[in-house]
Amino acid sequence: MSTVSSTTSSTSTTSSSSSTSSSSSSTSTKYTDFDTSTLVEAKLSSRYSRIDSLNTQVTTNQTKIKAYQDLQDKLQSLNTSLEKLRADPSSSGKTADVFRARSGYLSSNGSTSAGTYMAATVDAGTEMGSHSITISQVAKANILSSTSQSDKSTALGWSGSFSLGVEGGNSASINITTSMSLADVADAINAETTTSGVKASVMKVSDSSYQLILTSSETGQTITASDDGGTILTDSLGLLDSSGAVPSSAVLQAAQDAQFTVDGVSISRSSNDVDDVLDGVTLHLYSAPSSDTTLTFEVDNDTSSVKDAINSFVDAYNAFRDIVVTNQSTNSDGTASDSATLFGDSTLRGIASQAQSILSSAVDENSLAAIGITFDDDNKLTVDSTTLENALTNNFDAVEALFTYKMTSSTGDLGLVRHPNKSMSFTLDATVDASGTLTGASIGGDSSMFTVSGGTIKGVAGTDYEGLTLVYTGTTSKSVTVTLTQGLADQLYQAADTVANSDTGTLTDLVDNLTSVDNDLSDRVSALQQSTASYKSALTTLYGNIASKLSTAEYTVNLLKTLLNSSSSSS
Fold it and tell me: Where are the domains positioned within the chain?
């Protein structure tokens, strides 16, 4: 029995030891598998997913904002090109209006090119027509030369003063001292040119001969001179004779006015640049041809500038169409391609459809196709240059009417200042009192559609005439027949501006809204990141404490089991 008991006890001890070892191994394994970092990340995974989702929304919005901004940029560039073609009635619009551009064409009945004798510049809006010009003489400056001096840099030893000026102008007194050279005398004269109208230079005639040259600043002006103190001009420079007059020997070129005729009218001017004979035209006279030479100057439309403006519009429109095509592209399965950020976007679809509808329409039976501008398969515009040039040459007014906003009225007393976004016709009754002051404006006896201030007539908001501003300069009451015709360029400009205007356009609102949403999302991401970081820190501390306690517990259990096994063995 004793032996059996001992065996059993041994077996039990062995079994216990094995169990303790197994338990120690199992507990150790559990502790080793307690990965604080993994547990923390698992706990935070849902938060990370929310942050990623919010960031994805921000990125998606930013991509859309960029696409909207690209669209806005292309539409604004389109409108910049349309400014030249739409004939806005404002002062800046008139300046930009390419249909007001004029070219001047010169020809001569002689064998020498007309450009040898003159040139001309023409202002926008100048009345067109042909003019006959003959030139008898061009204007010349008065040029005087002094007697020769042996050197230009050596002190002359002269002392005194003299006055220089031009006939009908002011004179300036020039003071000369003994230390001054001929070059110094010229400098002293030039210091007073603004007052005197006389310029000076020193000309080297030979190695030992220099002359002082006096020239009137303006053509057609004769130099006047006098010795004020001393005899410098008389005895030293020989620019005056003993009687105080300029000797003929000192005159290199006499002053003379330009003499010419325009359409048979004799004209004299002191300058060769003449801008007050033909309205809007400046003539630049170079030389006088032979007496039997007649120059013809013709003012006509600048068709080259108009063609360039039309081609610029086509390029700008096609750049806009590129964005439309890109954002309408699909994959083979019919889904939107990756580049089609604005696929199905109502704003893009709306302006694309409206633009095509406008450009496909006619204005008084005129159309883009009639002047050589058609659509290709991508609805981009193509230009037949020959057809366009023929239209500009042979039917310029029709091309202008196709693009521009025009007002025609039965009197020149009514002018257009601002126009509504439409075509319309009406008869306006302007009422003027006995003093010639505009007191009212009405249509069919109804004066509620306009307000009057001074000579300005303005359409009332909410009526058909909202956006219309007219100015009446007549001094009597009058009924005026008015027709407003909105060309394609103005129609497209208004449509694009509604979408792309930097302040009030639809795209500006869309971008602002998305930017606001992104700001909110970014704030949420930032807040979530901060709370997640705090939560992570707390979890890390919590799980660290648990791991530490598990480790302590494991150690205690193993220690107790070891002591127990030791005690059992001793028994």
Answer: 2-64+514-570, 102-139+257-301, 143-253, 422-483
